[in-house]
Amino acid sequence: MDLDLDEATLEFRSEVRSWLRSHVRPLSSMDTADGFEEHRAWERSLAAERLSVVSWPAEYGGRDASLLQWLVFEEEYHAAGAPGRVSQNGIFLLAPTLFAFGTDEQRKRLLPAMACADEVWAQAWSEPESGSDLASLRSTAVRVDGGWSLRGQKTWSSRAAFADRAFGLFRTGPEGRHRGLTYLMFSLRAPGVTVHPIRQLGGEPGFAEIFLDDVFVPDCDVLGEVGDGWRVAMSTASSERGLTLRSPGRFCAAASRLVSLYRSRPDPALRERVVDAWIGAQAYRLHTFGALEQPPSGPEVSVTKVFWSELDVAIHETALDLLGEVAPDWRDGWVFSLSGPIYAGTNEIQRNVIAERILGLPR
């Protein structure tokens, strides 16, 4: 594997670094109404430079950048301390699914608005009593003239408190747990939609419940084939567990901050944990570079998901142990890291996937 970057990629890195240095500024929490709009404005400033979705085709707002250049962008983005991406559900989860299963009309209609944050998307997977068992969902979509009528309830929907649209799975047939499901996109402003924000321990609504009461969705907002939603949803899940949502730049930046913290507060009792965290981040980076030509997919992304989520917790808990307190500049990252082993399918589920589908172990 050649780790030397070509001239074009080095120039791209320099451009991104310079732009971020001039534009990054602190924003309010995206889990407040005002903060959400601040983050939307930030996304638009990225989009104006075609930096919001660098690897997308130019016709949708991107730069046709290679996967390597996207990784370089991510490294610079996180090293600069740039804000979290309020559009991440759309650009990192839904968009790869649209490229794989969407129609030309859907891509032309939805991707440009996503790239410039005119439409911010919520993820509407979970339902009450379903937990990580997505296939047990009970929300339905019933055929009506020109489209579908949605009924049911979604919960723990990321970004739904302030987002514009959502995507989710709905039962359209009785064929069994994984069949008869359809992937649908819908407006959170449509008649029949009620959004109840869920306040977290800090008091801000990072999630929401979505109640659907005869919500009309036109046929053009079915993603993939009717009844084939499970296969489409697994494509989205692969993006969430794998590379597109959690690039190594985020963990390398956090590990570098941890090393700097250790140098300012050396504690021999924690030295090995600091070294392990830094090595873990670098190993994930090198693994990613090595997989550029054929990024992992299917059950292999479960290995990646377990690794990065546990690495993130280790980095932040080591930092707090060094500090001896929950310091503000590490607090948000630590709290978010704790959710990593849960979202995108719990690590317990991922370990089952690894055991059964990769190692061939019995149930």
Provide tags for this entry.
363 residues, alpha+beta, Butyryl-Coa Dehydrogenase, subunit A, domain 1, Butyryl-CoA Dehydrogenase, subunit A, domain 2, Butyryl-CoA Dehydrogenase, subunit A, domain 3, four-stranded mixed beta sheet, four-stranded antiparallel beta sheet, Acyl-CoA_Oxase/DH_mid-dom
3D structure, described in words:
The protein has helices at 7-23, 33-48, 67-79, 88-101, 104-115, 229-241, 248-264, 271-290, 300-323, 328-339, 347-358, and strands at 121-124, 140-144, 147-154, 165-171, 181-187, 193-198, 207-218, 222-223. With 363 residues, the protein is an alpha+beta fold. The chain has three domains: 1-85, Orthogonal Bundle (Butyryl-Coa Dehydrogenase, subunit A, domain 1), CATH 1.10.540; 121-232, Butyryl-CoA Dehydrogenase, subunit A, domain 2; 246-359, Butyryl-CoA Dehydrogenase, subunit A, domain 3. A four-stranded mixed β-sheet has the order 1-4-5-8. It has a four-stranded antiparallel β-sheet with strand order 2-3-7-6, with no helix packed on it. Helix 1 runs parallel beside helix 3, helix 3 runs parallel beside helix 7 and helix 7 runs antiparallel to helix 8. The two termini are 37 Å apart. The mean pLDDT is 92. Residues 7-115 form the Acyl-CoA dehydrogenase/oxidase N-terminal domain. Keywords: FAD, Flavoprotein, Oxidoreductase.
